[in-house]
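To whoever is on call:

I kicked off a structure prediction for a single chain this morning and the downstream step that reads the tokens threw a length-mismatch warning. I double-checked the sequence; it's 256 residues and nothing unusual in it as far as I can see. Pasting both halves so you can look.
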Amino acid sequence: MFVDVVPGPKPSSPNLTLLHGWGLNGAVWNGVRAALATHFTLHIIDLPGHGRSHLTPVTSMNAFADAVLGAMPTQSHIMGWSLGGHTALAIAARHPQRIERMVTVCCTPRFIQAPDWPQGKRPEVLAEFAARLGSQYAATIRNFLALQALNQPKMRDLIRQVYEAVEAHGAPSVESLAAALEILKASDLRTSIPLIPHPALVIQGDHDALTSTASAEWLADHLPNSIYCLIEHAAHAPFLSHRDIFLDHVLAFLND
């Protein structure tokens, strides 16, 4: 598992593990890593089969989360975005002693719709996105990131730099995308959420078309010790589109 370790200001700086979303890699955090590294030692992990991490033969979210846990420091805050947030929830539920505080970003406890979960996405929506990533990775990621800069012209240069860094890490294989998609489709963490004891910050963009505000609100309501933060006019990647607001909330929470 590839881990980019960014030293904090002191040897004793607390650890912060960063987990990216499906189909991307750890470079997506480049816009906030310098600011975070003034407070924490960062452990930026490429998820299994993404970026510079090899595909790990796992078939469940529990196994996926355990593979990521093996690359983490013994004690750490954790921040995960989308699939990374879902993975962070699974780690916190299974190994609470390893986590201090948790931040989820545009994350849901279940991605796929069910009769008792209308907040989820139809399976074909994820399948269509996976097909585009598999056949036209660079264009799909570029378009996705560009959408985060709509009405945010000041952020366009940053997002272009992030895109170039993400692309430089390499595209995940079709097999890796498909494997992660199957894990996402099957995973349902709702029964585990009330058992997670950690202080948690649940961040959501109110214009997010991939994870709904309803699912983020459910998550915040069912985590026993959570704060809900809705960022206005943000879509699925508020750490890119609304970096300063995002950092204000994250640093205030983690440094509390």
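Update from on-call: the warning came from a stale cache, not from the record. Cleared it. Sanity check on the structure: The chain has ten helices and seven strands.
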